[in-house]
Amino acid sequence: MAKSANERYAEIMRDVQGLVQDQIAHQSLEHPTRSKLKMLVPTIGTFFTPLALEAAFQYQDSLRAISSRRFVPPSFNDIRLILNTAQVLALVQASKKTSVASRKLELVTFDGDVTLYDDGGSLDYASPVIPYLLHLLSLDIKIGIVTAAGYTEPSKYHDRLHGLLEAVATSTSLTESQKSNLFIMGGESNFLLVNDVRSPHRLRYIKRREWILPSMKHWSDAAIQSLLDVAEKGFEHCIETLQLPAQILRKERAVGIFPRPGKKLTREQLEETVLVVQQIVETDEAAHGRQRLGGSVTEDDSSHNKLKTKSPLPFCAFNGGNDCFVDVGDKSLGVQSLQQWVGGTDGSKTLHVGDQFLSGGGNDFKARQACTTAWIASPKETVDLLEEIIAFMELPLGTAPPANAIDTCQTIQGLRQECQMAASEHEEIHTGSSKGTKDMNEPSF
Q1: Which of 8-17, 96-105, 185-194 shows the lowest per-residue confidence on average (mean pLDDT)?
Q2: Contact yes or no for 132/386 (Cβ under 8 A)
Q3: How far is the C-alpha of 180 from the C-alpha of 194, rounded, in Å?
Q4: Is 403:367 a contact under the CB 8 Å cutoff?
Q5: Is the pLDDT of residue 445 over 50?
Q6: Which of 8, 11, 9, 17 is nearest to 36 (CA)?
Q7: How much is the average pLDDT of 305-324?
């Protein structure tokens, strides 16, 4: 029975794999027509690479015994992990088929909370993900952390990412050039900081005019503050109607709510709030799309008389798990800005890893417009994904990954030993020392 189920599931994956390939062919046409997949799923987005779904299924089936289950059909999590593996295989296989100069995987970006570390935590010295990130840097793959937390002060990011930043700074295996390939994009798409081992907090703030996309150059402060005014009124409405034990925090390019001291917001309250506020802002933007015509961006543009009607400003309303915020811009723009900053990497050479991909209230969702993605559910899954990337890169070209691909990979075994050593050293040396903590007045990563 297991063999029959395996063959049937594999056939389904092979068929869907063909539909994706057909969709990619239609995307490349000068005047795209509707593909079979587009007719079946009208809301389907852009595919940046083919997906090796059949091989990915066989790999995950060998780990999760999907075909051997008698009563439980393939679950959402099964499909999510199969898609992750398929995407990794597509990127790694493409990188082997091209030269180093044009290889596929050039940039990997990450969310923070629930992706790199537990919700509300920080990336400390003993984090198991750090050796894997350092290994990617050693392969000249660039690393970006694209987060909702919006600061211009490097010290605040250092509080949350101190383990990674110090590990990069003190690494003896990374070159200076490789160390500079770590970036932070804060406020979704509003604040860029680059790794600088000589700076006091290992990060250097880059002025906005030096890195923003052409489409972002004409965002006026008047338009931004007007959008945030509307969002703030939406939050005030929710606090009153839902009787939320919350207070409002207004920032330079974001506004949101967080619980009052000693209180907690429920999942239902947060989800209702983000959807209500999103609708309020979308309705207002549709009626009064606000964007300045002409001019250039400045660090502090107070030209409130330059508000004119044009296309709406992009924004992101998201549920941070303990808070709820609206940011100007979104992660698609954040990822695209990093792609531009590192020299023009496109979506087929970029992978974004995050946990918030639900269309309502998930701020990683928009990253799908900019690049390939992987949907994880915990920092442990992020480590598993990075192990897949590293192990699959070492397989012979055209080889389907066996069930023991990771366990037999010497590189992975070495990285796991580094994790164990770092955990032991952290327990001995850093116990009782001050650690980066999350300011509950700030949005989640």
Answers
A1: 96-105
A2: yes
A3: 7
A4: no
A5: no
A6: 17
A7: 75
- 395 in Cβ contact with 405 (< 8 Å): yes
DSSP state of 129: T
b/e code 10-19 from CB counts within 10 Å (16+ = b): beebeebbeb
Are 254 and 443 in contact, with CB atoms under 8 Å apart? yes
**DSSP bridge pairs for 143:** 108, 182
Catalytic residue at 113? Answer: yes
Spot the catalytic one: 22, 61, 78, 111: 111
Report angle CA 358, 227, 254 to the nearest 5 degrees: 60
Going by C-beta distance under 8 Å and a sequence separation of 6 or more, which residues neighbour residue 350?
106, 107, 108, 109, 335, 339, 370, 371, 372
Please identify which residue in the block is written with the tokens 């059949």. Answer: 54
Nearest to 254 by CA among 365, 330, 335: 330
Q: Is 309 exposed, middle or buried (0-12, 13-18, 19+ CB in 10 A)?
A: exposed
11 Cβ neighbours under 8 A, 6+ residues apart: none
Report helix, strand or coil for 217: coil
Q: What average pLDDT does the segment 412-426 reach?
A: 84
Instruction: Name the active-site residue from 78, 113, 159, 364.
Output: 113
Residues 430-443: tens digit of each pLDDT: 555 545 444 434 55
376: left (phi over 0), alpha (psi -120 to 50) or beta: beta
- Structure-model confidence comparison of residues 307 and 45, the more confident one: 45
Enter the tokens of residue 30.
Answer: 């000068």
| Percent share of the chain, pLDDT over 70 | 87
Q: How far apart are CA 150 and CA 256, in angstroms?
A: 12
pLDDT of residue 437: 47
